[in-house]
Structures are given as C-alpha cells and as structure tokens.
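Technical note accompanying the year-one report. For the benefit of new consortium partners, we illustrate the data format agreed upon in the data management plan: each record pairs a sequence with a structure-token string. No post-processing was applied to the example shown here.
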Amino acid sequence: MRSILFRQFTVFLLTGSFLLLAGCGGWGDYEHKSDRFKFKVTFPEKWEVWDRSDDHSDHLVATLPDILPEGKIAVRVTPLAPDATINEILPSFRGNLPTEMEEFEIMDEGTISSKKGEGRSITFTYLTEKHRMEGIRVLFIGHRFQVRVEMEMPKENFATYEPEFRKMISLMEL
C-alpha cells in the first residue's frame, strides 16, 4: 500500500513539475542570435519580426500590424573600432533622436541593464499629425560593436508595451 501511494505521489510531482516548466517555457516568439556580433535578443510574444540584416550590420524590425500598426521595435547592431567608448558614441546616439518633430521633448535619460551589461537610455515624446508619440532608445557597447534598440508608438499605448520592451532588454545577451 505504501509503495502504491509513493508511486502516485511521484507521478503527481512529476506531472506538476512538467506542467510548471511547460508554462514557464518561453517568453518570446522570436529569438535572434547573431553569429557575427555574438549577441542574442528575444522579442516579446505577438510581435512580428523582420530580419533586415546585411553584410555590414544586423537590423531587426518588429511590429504589431493587426493590433498597433504605428508601433515598432527596432534593433540595429553595427561594428565599432576596438577602442571605442560609450562617451564617444553618445553624441551620435543623441543626434539620431527625432528632434525635428513638433513638440519634441526628452522625458528621461538614464541607464538600463541587460543580462550581461549596462547601457544608456533616453525616453522621449513628440507630436505627429495623428498621434502624440512616445519612445525609448537604448544603447549598449559590446566587444567591437554597438547595439541600438528602440521602441516608438502612440503615447496611449506606450505604458502597456514598455514592460515587455524592458524585459526584452533585460534578457538581451551581449
């Protein structure tokens, strides 16, 4: 009798463990691992990802065409000189912000962490004909490469998707 109860308990534990692991299996639908730059990024579920990489850089664009056509996540990885520092790269990072847009405003600047490194982030807003937009741009310096990640979308949707973006960044491996 004791043996039967032990077996049933063991089966119960194994089944529960399997279900728990299956439920926690994956966060994102699409993972990009770069052989050239030795980094890995996983996109949030439901985002459709297009790989626009070429011989010089890795470039990925993700959208939610059926849910939020104005929203996007972009990842661009390009080579750097071996001795490049983040302070040398910051002016071009800031220079690529959409400052020409109406009512452009930087809302926050700070640091952000990935799985294996710390980068810089800028959160901003601007006005288009249709929407008040909000965005976040992130810069990481890897070994001989830079990673620029951005998310932009209408302000009313930003707070919904920002946690997914930040999780994507936190899981990124450089």
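Partners are asked to follow this layout when depositing records. Confidence is low (pLDDT under 50) at residues 8-26.
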